[in-house]
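Q: Sequence in, structure out?
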Amino acid sequence: MGDRKGNKTASPGKITRPAVSGIFARERLFTMLDNGQGKPVTWVSGPAGSGKTTLVASYVDAKDLPCLWYQVDEGDRDVAAFFYYMGMAVNQAAPRKRKSLPLLAPEYLADLSAFTRRYFENFSDLLPRPFVIVFDNYQEAPEDSPFHDVVRDGLSVLPEGIQVIFLSRAKIPKTLTRLQVSGSISSIGWDDMQFTRDESAELLRLRGCDRLSEDGFNDLQERTQGWAAGLILMAETAKAAGGALSAPRDLGRQEVFDYFAGEILDKTDGETREFLLKTAFLPKIAVSVAERLTDSTRADQILSGLNRNHYFTERHASGTAVYQYHPLFR
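A: Exactly. Output:
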């Protein structure tokens, strides 16, 4: 991570901004991020492989914005570690104002909220303006951790000129509902993250896969539904075959399966994995049908959880709960 593009210093991976190069600059979404600067928080959500991290990393590079990048993970259950890493990160982001921020000592736990507010007040005084703080993979924070309350309290005292961008596979958590109600959060969701036809065509061209018939391209766009990882997996498979996508339905199957296995099947419990394997072949599935097909009384809970966490599961607005898996997932 560095305070400016091209001025990176060695740091732990937890506070290192991802390096991006040779990627497709998504000007449409850059405009949405620009428009979101009028609000203190932007929430970017979408399934794995939708390009959230690449989007924001390329945006702060393109706009030459000073940035602090924080990778959220299971370890943030320990909020003392969070304050430690944030102190390390701010010293790298503003080296000319090098100042030690306090660590979370046991005596501060009695009023963690007050400590958090004072910490972020001092923290923000050290940062230049404008400044961007990114919390990547926010869905990895344990639900029962005080980390969420710490983030909420910290946001409450950040001054104008500091924007916070959250990247998550999940929707806005309850701890930030107040900001959402007050109109203080701008959102970029899965509908926005999906590549348009023009964007897909440009991405394929940059990947060296531009010898594609109109029917082939239409098929590819329909199957991937603008999912970045799906487009890239199929493009890379096509490159290995000489750059032509003559039969998209036959390309990338193993690569797509491996991706879903790593991002979903390996990260869910046994009951959910079995549920997915029994239902994924259906184009659409009602909760009542899923219950009969799987003999599971938790069908509604499983499907709503997959949808809430952007696990390639869409809920259709209707009188009864009907879900649809991403075409490549089937």
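Residues 1-11 have pLDDT under 50 and may be disordered.
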